[in-house]
């Protein structure tokens, strides 16, 4: 009777050891999964980043159009655009020398996608009445891609 019990214990131990050896993944299986994930990211990544850049350009265009509209309302009330010294703040708070100010024309001034305020130029340097623009990611004039200057003269 004692030998039967030992025999059963041996079989159970062998079965449990076999089960333990078979649970989990092999290194090759893990490498295959990681490779497939890397390939998917490699194919989808550029598309996602392109959409982010497109969204930034769209946001810039909408912000600039909104500021330009507020500037036109300011001009209707005050018969001129804010001076360079007054800047875009004149759309949110009344300038000291503005008797016809009927604002605020904007609740708050929007920030560009890089969390910097939009810039304002009066007089314009691009054959418009005034310029509203951002200097891009690098915050310097000129550049390409993320560093490109976007303004009322080149938005679509």
Outline the structure in words.
The protein is mainly alpha-helical. Helix content is 47%, strand content 6%. It has helices at residues 2-22, 27-78, and strands at 119-121, 131-134, 150-151. It has a three-stranded antiparallel sheet, covered by helices on one side. The termini are far apart.
Please provide a brief summary of the model.
This protein has a 3-stranded antiparallel sheet with strand order 1-2-3, with helices on one face. It is 47% helix and 6% strand. The protein is mainly α and 156 residues long.
User: Which series of helices and strands comes N to C?
Assistant: HHEEE
Count of helical regions: 2
Oligomer: single chain
Low-confidence stretches: none
Q: Measured on Cα atoms, how large is the radius of gyration? A: 32 Å
Q: Give the beta-strand count.
A: 3
Name the overall outline: elongated
Mean pLDDT: 84
Helix-and-strand structural type? mainly alpha
| N-end to C-end Cα span | 91 Å
The proportion of strand residues reads 5-15%
Helix percent band? 40-55%
The biggest beta sheet reads:
3 strands, antiparallel
Q: In which order are the strands of the major sheet placed?
A: 1-2-3
């Amino acid at each position: 009777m004692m030998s039967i019990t030992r025999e059963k214990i041996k079989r159970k131990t062998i079965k449990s050891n076999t089960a333990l050896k078979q649970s989990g993944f092999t290194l090759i299986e893990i490498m295959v999964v990681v490779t497939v994930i890397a390939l998917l990211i490699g194919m989808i990544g550029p598309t996602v980043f392109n959409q982010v850049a497109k969204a930034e350009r769209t946001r810039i265009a909408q912000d600039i159009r909104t500021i330009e509209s507020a500037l036109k309302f300011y001009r209707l009330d005050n018969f001129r655009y804010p001076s360079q010294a007054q800047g875009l703040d004149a759309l949110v708070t009344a300038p000291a020398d503005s008797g016809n100010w009927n604002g605020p024309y904007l609740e708050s001034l929007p920030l560009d996608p890089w969390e910097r305020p939009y810039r304002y130029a009066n007089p314009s340097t691009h054959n418009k009445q005034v310029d509203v623009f951002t200097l891009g990611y690098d915050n310097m004039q000129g550049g390409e891609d993320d560093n490109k200057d976007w303004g009322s003269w080149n938005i679509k």
